[in-house]
């Protein structure tokens, strides 16, 4: 997934069916969301303000991850590879539940990354396999964010870095409502924030992120995007809790 997306078939599109509970059914539903929301459109044709916010988010990801040449980097929910392509000089691996996203990532990255279809709750890697693990704008899309977070920690080496980003849904919705009350900016709102929340299974904010992280890792650095006055997204650097390390030993 890796980034917020915009509807592929416009504001008049009928609402999607709710996410099913079964793993196979959920994967099918998720694939329908991939088709409905066009990630390429988001990166290439979004409003300039949206692209500015995204550049700030990606810069924070790179800064907190601090990749060094040759390090092993995994992105969980790699989407079409827009984030992973920025980690040049590292040994890159990407997984996504969507076969469609993996195909797009393969077109973008070619042989520069190892790509596989996998669920974030059941990563096909041994403990401590990676120096850096990324999971950006994904936790709100999965049925069990805590299970995914536990897997991110498990596959990261003991002194490695886990970097996650989330939308701050409350502030995003407040901005949308405020702009929607002003007739002169309603058209701009459709271009800035056409995304519906039907793909979001959880309404994330900093409190929910802390709850998901608790007992599994700790937040050691946090960036508010675009800033602390009106944070629309958060990017966090995590380290595994000692309790979690002992449970894995």
Which terms would index this structure?
seven-stranded mixed sheet; alpha/beta; 249 residues; two-stranded antiparallel ribbon; Rossmann fold
Radius of gyration: 17 Å
- The global form is globular
Question: Any low-confidence stretches, pLDDT <50, length ≥5?
Answer: 5-17, 243-247
Strand order of the largest sheet: 5-4-3-6-7-9-8
Strand content: 15-25%
CATH class: Alpha Beta
- How many domain regions? 1
Largest sheet: 7 strands, mixed
Task: Using the coordinates shown, work out and report the CATH topology.
Answer: Rossmann fold
Helix proportion range: 25-40%
Number of helices: 9
The secondary-structure element order is EHEHHEEHEEHEHHHEEH
Summarize the structure.
This protein has helices spanning 23-36, 39-45, 48-65, 99-109, 145-154, 169-180, 186-192, 206-213, 242-248, and strands at residues 6-7, 37-38, 72-76, 91-96, 113-117, 130-136, 156-167, 217-225, 233-240.
Description:
By secondary structure, the protein is α/β, with parallel strands linked by helices. The chain has one domain: Rossmann fold. It is 38% helix and 22% strand. It has 9 helices and 9 strands. It has helices at 23-36, 39-45, 48-65, 99-109, 145-154, 169-180, 186-192, 206-213, 242-248; strands at residues 6-7, 37-38, 72-76, 91-96, 113-117, 130-136, 156-167, 217-225, 233-240. It has a 7-stranded mixed beta sheet, with helices on both faces. It has a two-stranded antiparallel sheet with strand order 1-2. Strand 6 (130-136), helix 5 (145-154) and strand 7 form a beta-alpha-beta unit. The radius of gyration is 17 Å and the shape is globular. Mean pLDDT is 86; it is low at 5-17 and 243-247.
